[in-house]
Each structure stands twice: as structure tokens, then as C-alpha cells.
Amino acid sequence: MLQFRFHGRGGQGTVVATILLAKAFFKAGYYVQSFPLFGVERRGAPVEAYLRIDREKIWIRTNLYNPDHVVVLDKTLFFSTNVTRGLKKGGWILLNSDSFPAANDALSGYNLAIVDATRIALKHGLGTRTHPIVNTAMLGAFSKVHGVPPMDAIVGAIYEEVALRPEANMQAAREAYESVRLFDGPAGAKEVG
Amino acid sequence: MKTVMEGSHAVAEAVKLARVQVISAYPITPQTHIVERLSEYCADGSLDAKFLRVESEHSAMAALIGASSTGVRTFTATSSQGLALMHELLHWASGARLPIVMAEVNRAMAPGWNIWTDQTDSLSQRDTGWIQIYCEDGQEALDRTLQAFRLAESVNLPAMVILDAFFLSHTYEPVDIPDQAKVDEFLPPYEPKFLLDPGNPCAFNQLAPPDVYMEMRFSIQTAMQSAIGVLEEIQNDFSEIFERSYGSIEPVECDDADIILVTSGTVTSTCKEVIEKLRSAGEKVGLLKISLFRPFPGEAVRKVLSRTRKVAVVDRNCSFGSGGIFAQEIRSALCNVPDHPLVYGYVAGLGGRDITPELLEDIYWQTKNTDFPELDSFWMGIREVKDGIICSGS
Lengths: 193, 394
Known about the structure:
Chain A is of the alpha/beta class. Chain A has 6 helices and 7 strands. Chain A has one domain (2-183): Pyruvate-ferredoxin oxidoreductase, PFOR, domain III (Pyruvate-ferredoxin Oxidoreductase, domain 3), CATH 3.40.920.10. The longest helix of chain A is centred in the N-terminal third of the chain and has 14 residues, at 14-27. By secondary structure, chain B is of the alpha/beta class. Chain B has 2 domains: 2-242, Thiamin diphosphate (ThDP)-binding fold, Pyr/PP domains (Rossmann fold); 251-379, 3-Layer(aba) Sandwich (Rossmann fold). In chain B, 40% of the residues lie in helices and 18% in strands. Chain B is built from 13 helices and 15 strands. The longest helix of chain B is centred in the middle third of the chain and has 33 residues, at 210-242. Classes of the chains: A alpha/beta, B alpha/beta.
């Protein structure tokens, strides 16, 4: 079983991202379970959502404490919340950012992937100038970083589930897939993909 | 068709497939997604039902009592304070013998204000004459909702299908949505045994003096008891049509178990993993899931538990001054069995606190390592609170 935690802000589509991803993984033959942080939500406030995937039925129905990997949809959260809380060593941090974060001890032992999902969302007219919706771009980057689910499953899930402008969302996912940069550690690290 | 779906939406899907005719509801977290989805179905015409928006849960139930009296299939959903506000009319629905079906998403009672899962809301309605079925996952929530209509209509009693807040209501997982044709075969249109009919005017629910009231109550008790057998027959039909089956209870690895854990709701799934782990370490442990709480399947419970040495009941609820409510039921089911097992009660996970595999393992080891259960219910993971209310004698 693999476990993922998503960090975002209310209104960015963080919960929807995990649902789309669950549907994409299911299309690719996985058993899935996704759920939001159980609590109250406000626009702009930090939110979390979770995804478990496995080849067999998932029995566990508890909160998720030790993710294998995390996804951060908003770079301001990178420093204001502890995005590596409980994260297993060797895990990937997929970050929406236009730049490589400065050296940070908390990141040692993790792999970092950077994608400028905000620029991509704006380019494809997703959300508004002040509130771009970055979730579908992050899904494309996710597929590249983890090798799963395949892009056709991501694109299929977007096509079926996103009611508003599915084409633009699919393009954003594809562009993020192509442009995400992978590093084998924090600042000063070697680009690996 | 198998698809990834939220637990709440699985219930809404079942209600649509059941061709419900009248829905009345008042919004409350965490059941919101159920009636939200149903109102969409009513608006887009995919469900041909009357959706009544009302000013309170009390009115929601009152509206369904009226609707059901005219012989139509009815549904509502609520949680916690909303269910408590319905209390008077819950008695009315069962007393009037109306097969109303409700989805109840377990949420803690306030204060302190809390939207998270806790069974005390539904369990404090246990004596209202409603059938109560607790669900483990999204598939069971869908299937049990379909079954609830048929069961309620067979015995003329209202039924509650109960889901854990968030751990079930807000969790997405693969759910098989049955074909409409198969559901129609399983659940034909409701044929009321009596109804308000202008062509045959009569009055219902009038004064019932001592010479008739007791027989009316006995009839409810008889109908409730018969629901255990009726549900079995319904299960047989259900498994033939849909190739899935559920019991009133579900024993796992109980045959040679020295200790059996008793659970309900989503905790059961987590516990299945724990049982597997303990078994592979050589522990003789089993699990008994209780799905049907009212009527309580005492005979079936006795059959499974009588042979074991110790029973550990996990209760996400509390009857203050007594203890966990499932534990009380298990004790009373076993007390007349000679040399019955010891029953250990554990209160855990109130107000949405997580019940983790580690906590369930702790319950197992504590049960194994304690010769005799000293408390009615042991509270798991309680922290020391320095500034509590001081009462004389405490």
C-alpha cells in the first residue's frame, strides 16, 4: 500500500485532486481510498486530503499519519506548515513553485520535484488571475514523478469528472507532466529527471 | 458498474435506485452530501420524487409521517442534534407502523460542539422502535439502504441505516452500483397494507385506551422480533440477484478463538487487519461484527460467542452511568448461557478520535492479560485533565 498526503489551501481544488487521482488509479487497476482532513474548511485556509492505493482491498479506515509521499499545491504552505510531518524517508515532495526552495534541514532525506503549476493554470485560464486552480496541473506532475497512474488514466478521469473546461484542464496536466523537474534532494541537489 | 464513490453518494444512489417517492430533509453536517445529491437528482429529473424542504428535522420527520401514511416510499437523512430533535416523531413513526427509511450519519452530541463520528446519537434512539443497521463501507451502505426499504415495508416498521461520519460518509472507494432492472426485481414498488384513502375514509393513530394499547405495543415487539428472520430471507434474495451477502452479524476467525473482539461500523474493517496480524503471530483471536442492532440478533450472537473464553467489546458510544452500549447488549445476550465468557467493555474513539490498529491491539492484549473485567467499560487512551469540574465525593 502507498499513502499520499496533499497540502493546499481552501479553493485550490486539493480535495478534488485526490478524488480525481483515486479515480485515475482505479482506472489503472488499483484499489483506492481517498478522503479529506475531517474537519471544517475555509477558503484560503490550509487544507489536507489523503489517498491510499493498493493492488488489493484496503481494510484500514483510520486517519493517515505516515505518508510515503506528499504533494504541496501552494508554496507558502511549504514554510508555514510542517509538510514533512510523519513523511517516510526517501519520499517525494512534489511542490508547486516557480523556484527551488532555499536549503532547509527539514528536507534532508527526501526527494523534491518542482512544477510551476500556478503559471500553467494561469496560462490555460483555470480559475482567476488571483485564484488559479492548480489541481489538474499537479496531477500531471504527479504522474511523471511517481510513474503512476499513467497519463491516459489522469486525462480520462479529468475528462469524465471535470465539468468546467475539461480540455484546458487536460492540457494543463499534460504541460505539467512535461515540465516538472525532479531532484534527488533539497537545495544543491542534482536534477534527476 | 464499479466506480469510485463517496459513502454518502452511495446512499443517495441507493435511494434513487429504490425509486423513492418523497424525500424530506433539513441540512446538517456530516449527512449533507446525501440529501445534496438527492436534491440534484430530483432537480435534473433522474429521480421522480417530491423533495420537501422544511424548517427543522422535527418537521422533516413529520412530513414523512404524512407522506408515508398515503402509501408512498419515503426517505430522509440526518445526524446528531438533528436526530435528537426528531425524537418524539421517531416514536410516532414506529407506533404508526410506517416503513420510513432514514440514513443516519453518526455524529457526536453537543456540547462540546463536534461534527465527528460517535454512535451515541443513534444509540440513544434505540428504544424508539426503529430498526437499526450499522454499515462498514460504501458498498454496504448502498446495499443496506436497498435492503432497509424492503425490510421496513415487510414488517411495517421504520429503519435507520447508520454510517460513521467521515470514515465512511466522506471516504471515496470503489462501489459497485447495481443495475436498475436488478434493483426493481429485488425491490418492487411499495404496496402499503393500509393507507389514507379518500375513497375509504378512516382515521389513524387515535386514542388507544388501556384495553388496546398494550396489544398494539406487543404487535410492534412481535414485528421487530420477526425482522431478524425476514432480513435473512431478504438476504437470500439479495445474494441471488447481486451476488453479495451480509448477515445480521459477521464472525471472522471465531471458531477456535479464545478471545473475540466485537465491533460495529468502520472499526470492523481496521480490526480485520489487526486480527490477521495477531493470528499470524499465533494468537487465537476472532472478530464479531454486529450489523443489526435493533432488533438485536441475540440468538446468533450467543451461537458465536458462547464457546469463547473472553469477549472484548469496542464501543464508540457511552451510556453515562453504565458504559458502552454494545457491551450491555452482549452481556444481556450471554447472561443466561451457563459458563458464559467474560465480557470486557472498552469505550474508544468518541467524538471522532481515531481508533487505530495499535489501539485495537492494546484492547486485545489488555483483555488477554486481565483475569477479570473490573469496570463496566474501560476508557481507552484517556489523558489526565487537571482543571475538570470537581464534584463532592470525586
